[in-house]
User: Fold these one by one.
Assistant:
Number 1:
Amino acid sequence: RQQHNIGFLKLFVVSVLSCVTLHVSDPDVPSSLKTLSLEGHFSFHDTSDAAKDFGNRFRFLSSAVLHPKSVADISAAVKHVFRMGLSSKLTVAARGHGHSLQGQAQAPGGIVIQMESLREPETRVHVGDSPYLDASGGELWIDVLLESLKHGLAPKSWTDYLHLTVGGTLSNAGISGQVFRHGPQISNVHQLQVVTGEGEIVNCSAEENADLFYGVLGGLGQFGIITSARIALEPAPKMVKWIRVLYSDFTSFTEDQEMLISAEKTFDYIEGFVMINRTGLLNNWRSSFNPQDPVQASQFNSDGRILFCLEMTKNFNPDESDVMNQEVGTLLSKLRYIPSTLFRSEVSYLEFLDRVHVSEVKLRSQGLWEVPHPWLNLFIPRTRIHDFAKEVFGKILPDSSNGPILLYPLNKSKWDNRTSAVIPDEEVFYLVAFLSSAPPSSDHASLELALKQNDKILDFCEKAGIQVKQYLPHYTTKEEWKAHFGASWEIFARRKAIYDPLAILTPGQRIFQKAV
Ligand code: FAD
């Protein structure tokens, strides 16, 4: 087995740099799975689409792809694999919209479940004093939003990009500029339905099967497949005031962000970006922001300086626009941005929330969406953000970056420490997200450069003793995973032994390995 593991590791290393497609299939798989009676179906021939992800660097072919129509289909498939026991190498991965970065939704030689095929439960909104919505784990957030808006409602906490599935983001955390108010998406779920690693269909919530409920939230797909989620809703505003201001001073930028996230009366959404040596600033931002004063905005010249952009929104309905403008004016008067850099826009709530999709459409049309994405997402404790910025923006990335860099604060008190999500041990910590693209025209040069920069950043954090935690974590050894989870590793491993004792689920995270 050791030899098998070393061989696997070698293949894995090769795939990291060259994105080769790897086959580890078992010829008996189709005949054994064909015996299952399903509402949906398996496909055995073209499994290559299920082996693709947004990261575009890892591609492990599965032996079969399940297109489930019902939760019973998912349960039957997992139960079947569970009953085969350790005599079979088969594993199972739920695949949401495949926006993972390093093959996390892939199952080498195993079964990938295309969660978007799952058609139950139908998305249903429940109005009332505490409105909520039930959605399938394979539903895209954009569709959840469109359905809830029909009732004048919307989920409270978002990701920047909505073409991700409910099960996919709840397996991580789901974060954006609303987290400081509502917590991540995993703090806004009342109940889940889950298929465990034994194929059992279990309902769970804070009151019922609470250990499984909290384990699955942020659980990287390790304890069960989320087949449905009950998501908290709030009244949806019709419009948002969307504002961007620029800073050249990092201290003012971070102090203003921290002040805003702790103030009682504040914006509804707050994020920051780092802009390194950018010209045509506005075109380079990753969204559809069109300021009311585009000429002034396009004339602003960064002169090669690193600039920091603070982005905020205030929700409003058309009849509240005067009050909203007053509140915004008061808040802006407390900030220390470069005075000539106040850019404003007003858009519908839907347009704001779906803003990154506009860039996706543009990038796709230029063949720049399906390229390698060596992203690195880090949570940095507030007390070390200056050390981090000095080294990373001053030395490691002094004059280039291959994509947007997000930098904004979050507060621990809005996260539930019973979930599996891992965050730093400080009340305020920053998300710093290096969202690099490596277009193929650069002959691997930009991919290698970005990967090297990521390594340098991680090395620096380690040497400087910065207690960084990766978001959307990627590790290849158990030791690294143990260090990632720290004190919560024991709970994580215990939950695995209870809910997925044969380690069938989500092998692409490379945390546990099925002991065949
Ligand atoms: P997949 O990539 O298909 O799956 C992710 C993991 O979850 C895999 O391990 C998979 O096996 C598992 N999984 C999938 N479905 C289920 C299920 N139903 N039950 C159990 N496990 C499951 N994240 C943020 O928090 N905030 C952002 O603003 C944000 N923006 C993004 C923008 C882009 C353009 C991209 C590509 C990613 C972004 N992400 C963001 C990251 C994103 O939330 C995660 O990559 C998420 O996992 C992707 O969802 P998916 O449906 O594509 O999941």
Note: Confidence is low (pLDDT under 50) at residues 1-18, 279-283.
Number 2:
Amino acid sequence: MSLATTQVATRGAVAVRSVDKSYGNQQVLHEVDLDVAEGEVLVIIGPSGSGKSTLLRTINHLDKVDRGTISLDGELIGYKVRNGKLHERRESEILAQRTEVGMVFQNFNLFGHLTALQNIIEAPIYARKIPKAKALARAKELLARVGLADKAGAYPRQLSGGQQQRVAIARALALDPKVVLFDEPTSALDPELVTEVLEVIKDLAKSGTTLIIVTHEIGFARDVADRIIFMDSGRVVEQGTPNELMTNPQHERTKSFLSKVI
Ligand code: ADP
Ligand code: MG
């Protein structure tokens, strides 16, 4: 293997190792182990309260793990090893790491006082000090990519839920993240607006960006996922290709969950 080949950096590979997380005396993640490969589209399914959102939030250190580690392209998230021990990183380093992880929430979380375009350029300009002209040009490209080139000047309240979520996706992509996390991106939408958002995510999936998507849209999961994991009570119960998991689930809990959602 040539040096050039060995030095190609991975992009967006996530490794979760033996992660435990509790709130008070309730343990919500139990020894979660998960590998997401560069460019992979991983879908997480599971009942409400099974720890899906918590797992996503630990990936960008919005929630701190109690035990275990999470790394992105080999770099520990939120911690550093010093003298053989884990030490939490400085706030500035944590914020810098967070800019490598895009996040799309159920409720869009756009800034209501900013236009679509301003929402997208906010982080590039203030968190990464990208020159305004460059950030604007990129934001316009991203708006076009999500089919909203004509909505640059619109405020969130002037947009439908589906349009707001597409702006939120454009915003999540603005810093060219290594991985994008979606937490039930269509759960808050009226049924007729779901498809337009799923189409944007499918398009992104084809582009080779690593995606981790929590969703209850089982048909979409089947179309878009390279792999699906089923979580229950804070554990990864089962995982496989969409076909394996949907047509031949191994665990009773997976079967019972799927029988309710399909
Ligand atoms: P899911 O996304 O699968 O519905 P969550 O990760 O949101 O599950 O929640 C897992 C469990 O942790 C639930 O029992 C929930 O009530 C609890 N939980 C989540 N966030 C908090 C929090 N900030 N404080 C206390 N309990 C929480
Ligand atoms: Mg959730």
Note: The longest strand covers residues 26-36.
